[in-house]
Amino acid sequence: MKYISPSLLSADFGNLQRDIEMLNASECDWLHVDVMDGIFVPNISFGQPVVKFIKKHAQKPLDVHLMIMDPGRYVDDFKAAGADILTVHYEACTHLDRTIHAIKDAGMKAGVVLNPASPVCVLEDIIQECDMVLLMSVNPGFGGQKFIENTYAKVRQLRDLCNRKNPACLIEIDGGVNTTNAPLLFQAGADVLVAGNAVFKSENPGETIKQLKK
Ligand code: DX5
Ligand code: ZN
Q: Is 97 known to be catalytic?
């Protein structure tokens, strides 16, 4: 699978509806929505009311990335706000299995996110429950950071783990993705690429999405 999920964190918040409509008309597959609490990550982005607004205008699934502590507290809230896929950090959950089941019971696709310093092997006993695993290719919190090269090796390890235990599980990559590393990531075994700055800071976002997908 080759999916592109542009990150609205890099959109113009003063013209959010315009940017969502641009994505509706583009070849992108999902809209990536970054929720940050200022505790799990140093930055604060936005919460459920903004997600609800995004849902109102979006014609594609919302891929909601929770960068918040103890995200299990907010599963039903984000379902109500319109999330289709909900990803939670391994590092932010004490009872990850419970949280993943709560997400699926609420009727969403469930994903686990790993920070750059968390090894793929910690997924060994949860991978069979995941619809998706998101590997962070930057330290979470900000758009526009430099891609961490070790990600390629992690994608290959994760692909092996999925082949062994859950072949249907999707692999998503987030952080510093651009038209240069995108083909290498797909080649290594990624299914979904998130791109913030690469899309929104480009001259022609629609064309960049097309390039990323190639
Ligand atoms: C970072 C967020 C990313 C971010 C990616 O913490 O999770 O989704 O928006 O932005 P770029 O593609 O600019 O690195
Ligand atoms: Zn993200």
A: no
